[in-house]
């Protein structure tokens, strides 16, 4: 009897399982497969046509694909870029700072006078488009135990804040920014100056700079290579009015905010409320950014000036070297110095300010007794309701032997100017 009941139980179980699989599981599976296939069919296929119409090669150049140009973009997906079967390095950034990405940066290579086609695929997780970090923002309190302190993402300071440079409040005296070629720092105090760390390593190094040893002596990562003093250092700012220079430094309130860092791009922003500007108090900002492979940072500056006021940006010049003005093409000019000016060494360092040629007003070099001493500077015309875009270039021969000659340095400035004036062309196609 027990054997009969057991066989009957097995019989009913098999019937139920067969019914459940055929009538319940199988239809659900079919619906899921069909839904997934329909979803994949709905995801648009984007192709990016890139074109270099210039007679020089574009190697490791960064292009931006605006999100607004991507039609029928699938919700909840992220773009992955491929050339044939190779995945290209990319980074999503938020240019307008509204908390959402609006630009896709892609690292590309193009031969002279050539075109290429990239394929955009869509992936579900942002981890699938993560690449090794190359650019870096570093801002933290100075460590008391040679270990890095917590990074600062946002900070406000009031007027008059100072630091003892022998024992500063902050690890780098303010926020630092770097890529694989060079590093810069801004003083987050009433000086509002800028400085340069020459790098001999391509990896990010700012997290450990200032923790052990002096950055004025060559270490395994490089060193501080600029003597700043009271000069404008590495692109510090001033206002020229009636022939006088007034440093753009302190403000009633200065705010730091980290914007981005990653595989290709890093940026931070300094906002100034009631900024000292030639005897008047004005609001403005500096947005400092850097891109992989470049030997410069870009500074987007917003400041409203009167017709007789000029924005000034400068280069420390303690050696009295010649400051050369050069027109590179129809759009860009530069003021540059070159020589044995890497502080603490007898090595070559080329420094340049690249700017829109149409904005040029004048340039000069101050003496050691001037209000802003030991500075070669360029004065730029007022820009009504526009930002000033300047590029501060620093090329150290220990980073690249190309810069051991003045000709090598000048050729790099020309290369940058020509690339800015002739960006790679892009076109989006849909399949």
UniProtKB/TrEMBL annotation:
Give the highest taxon in the source lineage. Bacteria
Protein known as? DUF4861 domain-containing protein
């Amino acid at each position: 009897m027990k054997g009969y009941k057991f066989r009957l139980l097995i019989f009913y179980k098999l019937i139920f399982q067969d019914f459940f699989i055929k009538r319940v599981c199988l239809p659900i599976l079919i619906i899921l497969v069909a839904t997934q296939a329909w979803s994949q069919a709905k995801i648009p296929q984007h192709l990016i046509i890139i074109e270099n119409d210039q007679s020089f090669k574009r190697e490791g150049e960064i292009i931006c694909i605006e999100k607004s140009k991507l039609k029928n973009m699938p919700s909840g997906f992220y773009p992955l870029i491929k050339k044939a079967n190779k995945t290209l390095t990319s980074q999503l950034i938020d240019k307008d700072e509204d908390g959402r990405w609006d630009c896709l940066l892609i690292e590309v290579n193009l031969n002279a006078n050539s075109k290429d086609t990239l394929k955009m695929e869509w992936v579900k997780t942002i981890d699938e488009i993560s690449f090794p970090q190359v650019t870096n923002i570093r801002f933290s309190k100075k460590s008391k135990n040679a270990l890095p302190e917590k990074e600062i993402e946002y900070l406000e300071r009031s007027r008059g804040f100072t630091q003892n440079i022998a024992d500063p409040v902050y690890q780098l005296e303010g926020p630092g920014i770097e890529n694989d070629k060079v590093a810069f720092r801004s003083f987050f105090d009433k000086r509002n100056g800028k400085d340069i760390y020459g790098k001999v390593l391509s990896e990010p190094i700012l997290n450990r700079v200032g923790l052990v040893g002096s950055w004025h002596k060559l270490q395994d990562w490089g060193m501080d290579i600029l003597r700043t003093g009271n000069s404008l250092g590495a692109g510090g700012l001033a206002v020229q009015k009636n022939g006088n220079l007034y440093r753009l430094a302190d403000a009633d309130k200065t705010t730091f905010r980290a914007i981005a860092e990653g595989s290709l791009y890093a940026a931070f922003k300094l906002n100034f409320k009631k900024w000292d500007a030639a005897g008047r108090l004005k609001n403005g900002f500096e947005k400092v950014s850097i891109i992989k492979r470049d030997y410069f940072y870009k500074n987007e500056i917003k400041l409203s000036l009167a017709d007789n006021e000029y924005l000034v940006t400068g280069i420390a010049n303690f050696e009295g070297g010649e400051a050369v003005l050069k027109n590179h093409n129809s759009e860009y000019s530069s003021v540059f110095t070159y020589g044995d000016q890497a502080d603490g060494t007898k090595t070559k360092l080329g420094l340049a300010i690249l700017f829109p040629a149409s904005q040029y007003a004048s340039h000069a070099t101050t003496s050691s007794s001037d209000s802003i001493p030991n500075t070669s500077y360029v004065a730029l015309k007022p820009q009504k309701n526009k930002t000033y875009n300047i590029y501060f270039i620093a090329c150290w021969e220990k980073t690249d032997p190309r810069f051991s000659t003045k000709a090598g340095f000048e050729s790099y400035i020309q290369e940058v100017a020509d690339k800015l004036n002739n960006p790679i062309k892009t076109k989006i196609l849909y399949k």
